[in-house]
Specification:
The protein is mostly helical. It is built from 15 helices and two strands.
Length: 363
């Protein structure tokens, strides 16, 4: 069982003192912590893999769209459809692994194994429904970001959206009782500034905001998006850390609602009207697209590992570090022009990672 042993996180967290409300939930403070160099290395490997996976997915997706635009005037594949297949893929992986594990434990018939799987996934309707919260919030978040981008210029949008790191940290303090050191708060500042500068180093001079743009609405939407992003991550951490269910069962539950959320998002992003209905569900899918889907499946499990065994804020560090790799990759592979702001942003991101892990580095 994935919840039977807790690995040493990058930071020492505060006790929450929460009491379990369900038989499959345990308070964070009561779980034994195995302090070892091996656990540190496992977390670092997961962090590095998630960073690389994020960068590879973004660069590969950009490459596939550029290739498609060179050979066809039709729109490329719908991103929401690709994400939907990734969510379905996460469910399939979780189902296969769980069935194999159940078969080792019980060595029962196929029907009995399927019943056991159903019981594992849907043993508590209240717990299952909690996993719908991230899917709903992500659908709302995507709609908010789309509205914000339509009403704000890119530079201002990038600056405001980096507040998501602080909202995630503040919500972790309020909801999980987490305690951060002064070095870690400083690391959040470095991370936000570094991500902003890295983004601004490739921002086009042309503004995509129309004359009828509502800047106040744009600011409100992006601030709400930072809150939903932070709350969703902390909520997921609480669900994963407080449960004895395996990461595979949790990913099955999350994938079910995530796939439905993608259908809703396809309407808000315009994929449904502009691509899916006119051209078909699988329009524009190539081997590269399926590679992106497979990488997103891997990324889903890496994120779950990071959130459960490290903490949600580490995911922000992985995303920002990946941003540096994405910008650098755009320069080398797509001839994107960069300014000196990129190197300042790179330095700040590296400093942020160092400050965040100050305690571990000293040990």
């Amino acid at each position: 069982d994935a919840g039977s042993e807790e690995r040493e996180p990058f930071i020492v967290t505060a006790s929450t003192g929460e009491k379990p409300s369900r038989s499959d939930e345990i308070p964070i403070a009561s779980k034994p912590v195995k302090r070892s160099l091996r656990s540190y290395l496992a977390n670092i490997v997961a962090f590095v893999l998630l960073t690389a996976q994020t960068a590879v997915v973004v660069l590969t997706m950009r490459y596939s769209r550029l290739v498609h635009s060179d050979v066809s005037s039709e729109p490329s594949f719908a991103i929401t459809v690709a994400v939907m297949f990734a969510e379905i893929g996460k469910c399939c992986v979780g189902i296969v692994v769980t069935l194999v594990d159940l078969n080792k434990q019980k060595n029962a018939s196929a029907i009995a194994l399927c019943r056991s799987l159903f019981a594992e996934v849907f043993n508590d309707s209240q717990t299952v429904m909690k996993m719908s919260v991230p899917a709903i919030l992500y659908a709302i978040q995507n709609s908010l970001l789309f509205t914000a981008l339509s009403n704000l210029d890119s530079a201002f949008y990038q600056i405001l959206y980096q507040l998501k790191t602080f909202t995630a940290a503040i919500l972790a303090v309020l909801m999980l009782g987490r305690v951060y050191t002064k070095y870690q708060w400083l690391s959040f500042v470095c991370l936000a500034l570094g991500a902003t500068l890295a983004n601004l180093s490739i921002v086009d001079d042309k503004s995509s905001v129309g004359e009828e743009a509502n800047s106040v609405l744009g600011v409100i939407c992006v601030l709400c998006a930072t809150l939903t992003s932070g709350f969703c991550g902390v909520f997921m951490e609480k669900q994963l850390k407080n449960s004895r269910q395996s990461l595979y069962i949790k990913n099955i539950q999350l994938g079910m609602f995530g796939a439905v959320g993608c259908v809703v998002n396809s309407y808000f992003t315009g994929d449904l009207q502009n691509i899916i209905i006119p051209y078909g569900l699988m329009h524009g899918f190539t081997n590269i697209t399926w590679f992106v889907v497979a990488m997103n499946i891997v990324g889903g499990y890496l994120v779950a590992w990071i959130i459960k065994y490290v903490e949600n804020i580490a995911k922000a560090f992985a995303s920002t570090t990946a941003l540096i790799l994405i910008v650098a990759g755009s320069y080398f592979f797509f001839e994107t022009q960069l300014t000196s702001l990129f190197f300042v942003g790179l330095l700040l991101v590296l400093m942020g990672n160092m400050f965040f892990n100050h305690k571990v580095l000293c040990e």
